[in-house]
Amino acid sequence: MVDKALGTGGRKSDRDLKIRLKTAKGRTTSSTKWLQRQLNDPYVARARSEGYRSRAAFKIKEIDEKQKLFKKGMRVVDLGAAPGGWSQVAAKAVGSTAEHPLIVGIDYLEMDPIPGVILLQKDFTEDDAPDMLFKALGGHKADVVMSDMAWPTTGHRPTDHLRIVHLIEIAADFAIQVLNPGGAFVAKVFQGGTEHELLHMLKRHFRTTMHVKPPSSRSESAEAYLVAKGFKGAEPARAAEDDSDA
Ligand SMILES: C[S@@+](CC[C@H](N)C(=O)[O-])C[C@H]1O[C@@H](n2cnc3c(N)ncnc32)[C@H](O)[C@@H]1O
Questions:
Q1: At 9, is the secondary structure helix, strand, or coil?
Q2: Which of 33, 188, 213, 232 is catalytic?
Q3: Is 66 assigned a catalytic role?
Q4: Beta bridge partners of 105
Q5: I need a labelling partner for 78 at 20 to 30 A (CA). Which of 63, 106, 197, 229 fits?
Q6: CA 167–ligand 1 middle distance (angstroms)
Q7: Sign of the Cα pseudo-torsion (185, 186, 189, 191, in order)
Q8: Domains of the chain, with CATH numbers?
């Protein structure tokens, strides 16, 4: 049941108008909380009115506003793309069209088509996923690899931690293989930031690395985003790695 609580004086304003839900029969407390949060979330309302499929769209929009990731004509890979908010933002920013698609997205969930975006329904951790993405890029390299992937949590913190670290590692490995020199890698990370070893590897391959928390990322959420920019190109970094092994 929806109950609109008015602010002082009984005047409705956007700020005052808060929707509270009573727990309905059959609805758990956590799903009631989730629904209440959705109903009161200005980003959810904005996503709806601006035609984005997810409130997550604003995270990459805000990251791009600060970090200047996208330029017209760039090619972008979106890992964990469903329902498609990030791909929509990227497609608009780079000017991707159905005739000349510049964005390739992958998710194991089914997605409705997005104009200008080639979508693969596939688990990115499967061995043949990178090849499928290379093929979908039509032999071109990418300028941005962005990953909003996260496994559903198991509740067992060490397991969840290892699983997310693994996901970020394979996304980073893929980015290093597919990016053009100067390219950027963006990935969702969780509390504690990026693992030391991975960060070290990224610092070798990119001119700058940083962690950002866009305003639309809920403050109570442990998520943040790693942004690595200025990819140095596969060859010099590989040579540097060979040197360090010597
Ligand atoms: C937070 S959502 C992405 C939201 C998206 N950025 C948007 O704006 O609509 C995370 C997505 O990652 C996907 N995902 C998680 N692990 C994956 C994997 N191994 N392979 C492919 N997709 C994965 C999930 O299915 C989920 O759709």
A1: helix
A2: 188
A3: no
A4: 78, 119
A5: 197
A6: 11
A7: positive
A8: 2-40 (no CATH), 55-244 (3.40.50.150)
- Tell me which DSSP letter residue 23 carries: P
Report whether 230 belongs to an annotated binding site: no
* pLDDT beyond 60 at 15: no
Q: Cβ distance 77 to 137 under 8 Å?
A: yes
- Is the distance from the beta carbon of residue 225 to the nearest atom of ligand 1 less than 6 Å? no
CB atoms within 10 A of CB 28: 9
Q: How many helices (H) and strands (E) does the chain have?
A: 8, 9
pLDDT in tens, 145-187: 999 998 888 888 788 778 888 899 999 999 999 999 999 999 9
Q: Is 80 annotated as contributing to ligand binding?
A: no
CA of 179 to the centre of ligand 1 (A): 20
Q: Name every residue whose Cβ is closer than 8 Å to that of residue 84 and which is 6 or more positions away in sequence.
A: 53, 54, 105, 111, 112, 114, 117, 119
Torsion sign (Cα): 186, 49, 109, 130: negative
For helices 85-94 and 57-67, the axis angle rounded to 10 degrees is: 40
